[in-house]
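re the bet — no i am not wrong, look at it urself. input seq straight from the record:
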Amino acid sequence: MKKVFALILTLAMVLSLAACGGGDAPASSGDQPSQGDSAPAGGDIEVAVVLKTLASEYWGYVKTGCDAAAADLGVKVTVVGPGAESDIEGQVSMIEQQIGAGCDAIVCAPNDAGAAIAALQAAIDQNIPVLAVDTNVGIDGQTCFVGTSNVDAAKEGGLWAAQQAGDGAKAVVIYGQEGDNTSNMRREGYEAACSEAGVEVLAALSGQNTTDGATKTMEDLLNAYP
C-alpha cells in the first residue's frame, strides 16, 4: 500500500506543478511512502482526478499534465471535471461516481472544500487515499495537500503591484469564483497587501473565473471609478 502512496503522491506533485507553477513544498500528513515495500504493478492502479472544471484553458493544461504523468508512471488515470467551477453539486457527484467505480486513490481540486468533505470522507472510510491539490480539503485521514499558501502568495503579488503604482494609489480587486476557497484566500491576501501599503481598495468583485466575466467586471469598475 505504501508503494501505492508513493506513486499517487508523485502524480499529485506533477499535477501541482501545473496547478501552482511549482510553489512551495507540499505539507503532507498520514502514511509516507517507504522504499522497502514491494509495489503492485503500475497498470493495476487506477487513480481518479477530479478537477474544478475541464471547460477552461488552464484546467485543460492540468489535464494534459495528468495524462502525461499517467503515461510516465504506468498507471490508469481518469480525469473529470464539471462544465464550470460554479457547478459545485456536479463536482461532488463526480467525486461520488469515481469512488463508486472503485478507484485506488482520488486526487481532488475542490470547488468548495466544505461541500466535498462528505464525499471524500466516504473515500477515506474505504481506505482510499485522498489527495487535495490547489485548494485544501483539510479533513482527518487526508493523505496530503499539494499546493501553495494562496493568502501569502496573493499578498506578495499585491505588495509588488502597490510598489509599482506608487503613493496614493487606488485599486480594484477582481477575484475568481464567488464562494471558492482559493479565490477567497487570494482576495484576502490582495486586500491585506493594499492595507499594508496604504492603497485604497475601491471595490472587490468576482470575475467568475472566466475571461469574459473578468472583462465585463473590469469594464463595469472602470465606468464606476473612472
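see?? The chain is about 50% helix and 15% strand. told u. also Residues 151 and 185 are 5 Å apart (CA to CA). so pay up
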